[in-house]
């Protein structure tokens, strides 16, 4: 008989953990669908989805089944060998996208790190040492490694760690003239999120992405789309860039790809992938059989017309209610986003108070997110039931009533 689990409480975080997070006062211990229970047994509706990760909610039977089946077969063999789940998931991703080759890793930051390294390697091999510059958007977010925070364009994440990676510049999102002025034959890549997630749930403009594609082609630069947050069905299509009809050279995916199990992927073409020859880049856990088995199950559920059309219908249900609540209580100036990545922009009187909205929602047993200080973000399960949407929105309205009448 196994020993009982030691009792833990929220105060233990402050005693034992590095203080780089400030988690909520309660500890979730169980989830089912779009409901979560904490240590005291309190039930919450989850509109946060683990920050756009829990694409099928909590403990979805297809994912639990895939994980437990694989757990009794093979956990890890390293990349000295390949394994069946890796090959199955790679084939599913290639069949469903523009890509011909896949590199697996563990997080969005690692997928972006691989993408940026590949872009520089391609330019180095084809054009020489001088072609290494990367252009990204201000207020973008691409991860927390030194390279990816340098590309991210947010000083609060990149300052204070010594010299930054050189050769990176930033332009305002959706400013095609600025991109045109910045790009040159020294540019190896332009990196964009089709929907800026952490930057405030901002949609790219069609003309901006199209223009970026044309400028990259004219300057022999690669177009990289970071779809870590916007991908895997969240927009109502498997990847958001297809809404715009613009195809990248490299695509990164993570978060929802594993539905809660850590996995990420960099997707590209055969012609570019050959520059990552044996030994040029690597990872210990990338392509792990457990992660890839779960990823296969996620793909099988998400990449269906039924699920993707359901995302669009749920978007409308959320938007209608949130626009009414925003107007009725003077809280939001705009509701924006695609699919089930929704951002509610706080009205002038509430600017900077997104965290207050989160706290008020939690008091009404609802989990929501923010995207910066001025945007309340919703990223629920793509298969969240209508009853959970309605109950969660009712709790959200109660929270707004208390907040705005205080």
Explain what you see.
It is a single chain. Helices cover 40% and strands 18% of the residues. The protein has 406 residues and is an alpha/beta fold. The protein has 2 domains: 11-59 and 305-405, Aspartate Aminotransferase, domain 1 (Alpha-Beta Complex), CATH 3.90.1150.10; 74-302, Type I PLP-dependent aspartate aminotransferase-like (Major domain) (Aspartate Aminotransferase, domain 2), CATH 3.40.640. The strands form 4 sheets. The chain has a 7-stranded mixed beta sheet with strand order 4-12-11-10-7-5-6, with helices on both faces. Strands 1-2-3-15 form a 4-stranded mixed beta sheet. Strand 16 (369-370) and strand 17 form a beta hairpin. Helix 3 (61-71) runs antiparallel to helix 12 (289-302), helix 13 runs parallel beside helix 15 (386-405) and helix 14 packs across helix 15 (386-405). The chain is globular. The model has no long low-confidence stretch (mean pLDDT 96).
How would you summarize what this structure contains?
This is Acetylornithine aminotransferase. Helix content is 40%, strand content 18%. With 406 residues, it is an alpha/beta fold.
Number of strands: 17
CATH architecture of the largest domain: 3-Layer(aba) Sandwich
Low-pLDDT runs of 5+ residues are none
Largest sheet: number of strands, sense, barrel closure: 7 strands, mixed
Binding site for N(2)-acetyl-L-ornithine: 144, 283
Pathway: Amino-acid biosynthesis; L-arginine biosynthesis; N(2)-acetyl-L-ornithine from L-glutamate: step 4/4
Protein name: Acetylornithine aminotransferase
Family: Belongs to the class-III pyridoxal-phosphate-dependent aminotransferase family. ArgD subfamily.
